[in-house]
Structure formats: C-alpha cells, structure tokens
Design brief:
Its EC number is 3.2.1.-. Ca(2+) binds at residue 473. This protein is of the alpha+beta class and 573 residues long. Helices cover 42% and strands 14% of the residues. A hairpin with a 4-residue loop joins β14 (350-352) and β15. The radius of gyration is 23 Å and the shape is globular. The N and C termini lie far apart (48 Å).
C-alpha cells in the first residue's frame, strides 16, 4: 500500500529542487578547491596528532582527546589511506610503524562489532593493500601476508564470537578480551548484521581462512530469509529469535550499509546472488518507500508510511544507484538532498519532508560524508558541474561553520550553528577523502586500468593497483584484484613461500605501465623513471598483441560503474 496521493502531490509541489543562482563551476574540477580540501585535512590531522593521539578522537573545542570506539588510536587508522590519496607517502610509512608498535587488540574493552569492522579492519586492510604503492618495504608473500594484514585478522578474530548465535546474525557488541558479555542485548540493527562481506571476504581471500567470509555470508542470508512478504526488512532484529523488534523499513540509519554491501560485495566478489538480492530489495524500496524522488520510512509488513523524514545517512543512496547504472534516478534524488544542504549549510540528521524543516533533537550535522560521497560517484558517471557545486558548498560550509583552532567540530544545531566538542574519525576517513577525490580527477584511485603493477606472490604473478577500487562504508578502498592473488589454501602457502625466497633474492617485484592503443588491443611500455632497469631487478617489457589474451578476467554479469571500472585486465576481445 502506497502513501496517499495528497502527500505525494505536496512533496512534488513544495520540494521540487531549486536552481542554483551562483556561478557554475567549469567542467574541470578546481585545483584551488582541491588544495583547500588538502589544507582542511592537515588542519584536522595535525591537531589530532598534537592534542589527541593516542586517543581515538580529537575534541576540537577543548584541544584534547577521547576514546570512543575501543581505544585503537582510531583516527590514525581511519586517516591512513587518506594520507596516500593526498600523496603523503612519508607520513603513511611513519604511521604504519606507529600502528604496528602501539595498537593492541587484546584489551578488556566492549567494542561495537560494526564500527570495529568498518573502521579498524577496513582501514588496516586498505592500508595493507596500498603499502607497496606507498613505498613501504613489504615482506615476502605480500599481499598474502604482512603486518597490517595480521593486525586486521587479529581484530576480526576478536569479533567472531559475536556471530555465534542460532541465526548466524551477530550481536552488536563484543568484549575484545572475553567475547560476548552474558547480559548482552540480542537486539541488533540491520546494518550491524549485514555490513561485513567486503572486509571479511577480503580477509578470507588474502589469508586463506574461509571463516570470515562464511560468517558474513550467513548473516546476509539470515536477513534475506527474514524479509517481509512484501520484500522489506526492518530496522532492528533479535539475533537469537529472528523476530523484528523495530519494523520501520527504509534506506537510512540502521539499514543503510546492508544494501550498500549487497552491491559492493557483488562487485568485489563477482557474485550474482548478492546482486540479485539487492535488485529484489530495490524493487520493493521503489514500490513502497519512494515518492517524488524522496524515500520515506514505512511499516515493513504493510508498506504504510511510518515516518515522512529524510535522514542524512540516506544521502549515500544516489551514489549506490550510480553503481548499478541508475544514474537518472540518482541525480533526481541527489538534487532533492542538495536543496536541504543549501537550506542549512549541511544535512540535519532528520529532515521532515512535508514540513520542510528539521526534526526536534535531530538538528545536528556531525560532518557526515554521504552527500559528498554520492557527488563523487555521480561526477565520475556524469561530469555534471552541479556535483562540483555541492563540493564547493561543502568546503565553504565546513570551513565557515565548523573550523576551530584545534580542528573541525561537529555542528550541534544547523539552525544556529552551535558546535559540539567532537570530531569523528570519519571526517578524515570519508568526508575529506571524498571531497578530495571529487576535485582530483587524476588521482590513482580513479585509474581506468591503463596503468597497473605486476607483483610476484608465492602463487605466481599478480596484477594490482589497476583501479576499480571498492570503498567500504568507511571509504577505505579495497583493490578487487588483490582477492585473486592468494588463491592457494593457507596450509600450502608456507611450502611455496620457502621456494620463493631464493627466487626473491634474484628478482624483485616489477612495475608495468600499459597505454591502451586507440583502435586495437596493443599496449606499449610507458616511459617512467621508476620502470627503468635497476639493481633491484626491474626490467622492461614490451607487450605485443598475440593470439591469446595477455591478461583477462571473466566479463561482468551485471552492469555497474564500478564493475566496468573493475575490468582492469586487458582482453583482445
């Protein structure tokens, strides 16, 4: 059952996107804006180091720190891959050493299973896979081994006790030393159950231990099994009984990254089943929650409207739509959300759509990235300058409202711009990163596959850094090609590595650059000083067209922007 026509008409008439009267940016992203974003990062990052490290987060109004999610120096982990995206290899290398020496997961702390996964496990995995690019001296067997990978695995193993439930759906909190507390609530939000496949499947593929991917898949399928007859899932569920406790269905808080990970898991793993699950959900979402390019909250069994609100966390949705090729719908929804941004200089946590104003006690903006994230994805798909205008507005709003002497503060109330004494780690992991990538079209993250590295692993040659990166929900990029580097079972690895050590003493990893020819499948070696022969064993290769594909991978079975970008291997066809 859909909401009333009168509500639909009122939304259409009163909240149609308004045209911007400001000068439009050029089609080319602004270098000056990119450098302003860089300065934002270092203003926040340096004050974290000076005033808050080794605590999890900076308190920018009092210039000190606090632990929030488990005492992991969380901002340092979250900011690590952003350092490389900004080109700071020396600081990346320094932080890698600091984390190896200073982070301990064997502590008596109750930690969020969801947050530890996306921020800590995701951040360490991303940094591990980017280490060689950042000039870190990697060990024999990389990317199938390495200190950051071992740290990520250790953190993930601390989370595994949470999955030991009758349904396979995890508890929301786990004690890192003792496991799940006896009195722990069995009620977990949907996103807290369905947001593991990207990190856990990556771990399984790199380490050879299937347990991580297995528990993540079991949790995903448990949610799918317990969807309503009209195809929707609620907000919170009892992981012991599989009974829905909160039956509001939507795309925002408590549900959001479940849908995101069905799509990204499908792209990362080339998994038809995950994509099929999302597409079925997408039909139900359109049928019951979508009105005039807004998405409302409805009762999961009946489809009747329960909350006609827009939540700031929902702003990821246009970016997700772009990944499945639904760009037109994505742009229309994005423009709706952008009108809210222009109304307040940020996105309030809750926005009442019929009233066109904030919801009581939900007026804040903690510098969330979701609308900027969608702008980055959509700009890559469309090159529409409106998306750059959002980026410019975001830079100006954050600098004007949120910047203080010791960093950037959460906006407690967008109506009067009062600030709160917190700077969440995702500001450096996501918000600044997506802004920078929006204004830096030549960043290595946007690689189209024409340049890549070939590294030698214990299992043969492996293609890396060719593009198609899949961002986890904390904006930590995962190289999908890396999942194909470590296919052997873990028990076979050590025997192979012993044989490789002698080989490694004679021949180091090599970097290759391919320039695609305009009308045929040949490539040629680019002139790159890093690629010249050296005492390290590098050598030049000229690739010639032959009767078989040089490097190939199966064609994608579904359409999406990331899937296309993920086809980074050359194929003569």
């Amino acid at each position: 059952m859909r909401p009333s026509l009168s509500l639909s008409l009122s939304l259409s008439l009163s909240l149609r996107p308004r045209l911007s009267l400001r000068p439009r940016l050029s089609l080319r992203p602004s270098l000056s804006l990119r450098e302003r974003v860089r300065a934002m990062f270092y203003h926040a990052y340096e004050h974290y180091l000076e005033s808050a490290f080794p605590y999890d987060e900076l308190r920018p109004l009092t210039c000190d720190g606090q632990d929030t999610w488990g005492s992991f120096s969380l901002t340092l982990i979250d900011a690590l891959d952003t350092l490389l995206i900004l080109g700071n290899v020396s600081e990346f290398q320094r932080v890698v050493s600091v984390l190896q020496e200073g982070v301990d997961f064997d502590i008596d702390v109750n930690a969020s299973v969801f947050e530890t996964n996306i921020r800590v496990v995701g951040g360490l995995l991303s940094a591990h896979l980017l280490s060689k690019k950042a000039g870190v001296e990697v060990e024999v067997g990389w990317p199938c081994s390495g200190p950051l990978l071992r740290m990520a695995e250790e953190a993930a193993r601390k989370l595994l006790p949470a999955f030991q439930t009758p349904t396979g759906m995890p508890y929301g909190t786990v004690n890192l030393l003792h496991g799940v507390n006896p009195g722990e609530t069995p009620v977990t939000c949907t996103a807290g159950i369905g947001t593991f496949i990207v990190e856990f499947a990556t771990l399984s593929h790199l380490t050879g231990d299937p347990v991580f991917e297995d528990v993540a898949r079991k949790a995903l399928k448990a949610l799918w099994k317990n969807r309503s007859d009209i195809g929707l899932v609620g907000n919170h569920i009892d992981v012991i009984t599989a009974k829905w406790v909160a039956q509001d269905a939507g795309i925002g808080a408590g549900v959001d990254s479940y849908f995101e990970y069905l799509v990204k898991g499908a792209i990362l793993l080339q998994d038809k089943e995950l994509m099929s699950m999302f597409l079925e959900y997408n039909k139900a979402i359109k049928n019951y929650t979508k009105f005039d390019d807004w998405y409302l909250w409805v009762q999961m069994y009946k489809g009747t409207v329960s909350m006609p609100v827009f939540q700031s966390l929902e702003a990821y949705w246009p970016g997700l739509q772009s990944l499945i090729g639904d760009v037109d719908n994505a742009m229309r929804t994005f423009l709706n959300y952008y009108t809210v941004w222009k109304q307040f200089g940020g996105l309030p946590e809750f926005y009442n759509i019929p009233q066109g104003y904030t919801v009581d006690k939900r007026e804040g903006y903690p510098l969330r990235p979701e609308l900027i994230e969608s702008a980055m994805y959509l700009y890559r798909a469309t090159r529409d300058p409106t998306l750059l205008e959002l980026g410019r507005d975001a830079v100006e709003s954050i600098e004007k409202i949120s910047k203080v002497d010791c960093g950037f503060a959460t906006i407690k109330d967008l109506r009067d711009h009062r600030l709160d004494n917190r700077m969440e780690s995702f500001f450096l992991a996501e918000t600044v990163k997506y802004l920078y990538l929006l204004f830096d079209p030549d960043n290595f993250i946007h690689n189209d596959g024409s340049v890549f590295d070939v590294v030698i692993t214990p299992y043969g040659e492996c293609v890396l850094n060719a593009g198609g990166y899949v961002f986890n929900t904390e904006a930590h990029p995962i190289d999908p090609a890396a999942l194909h580097c470590c296919r052997k079972r873990k028990e076979e690895q050590w025997e192979v590595e012993d044989l490789m050590r002698e080989f490694y003493s004679l021949k180091k990893n090599k970097k290759f650059t391919l320039q695609r020819a305009a009308d045929h499948g040949e490539g040629e070696r680019a002139k790159d000083p890093e690629d010249a022969p050296s005492e390290k064993g590098g050598e030049k290769r000229n690739f010639k067209k032959s009767s078989h594909s040089l490097l190939s991978c199966p064609s994608q079975s579904f359409n999406s922007k990331l899937a296309v970008l993920g086809q980074v291997f050359l194929d003569n066809t």
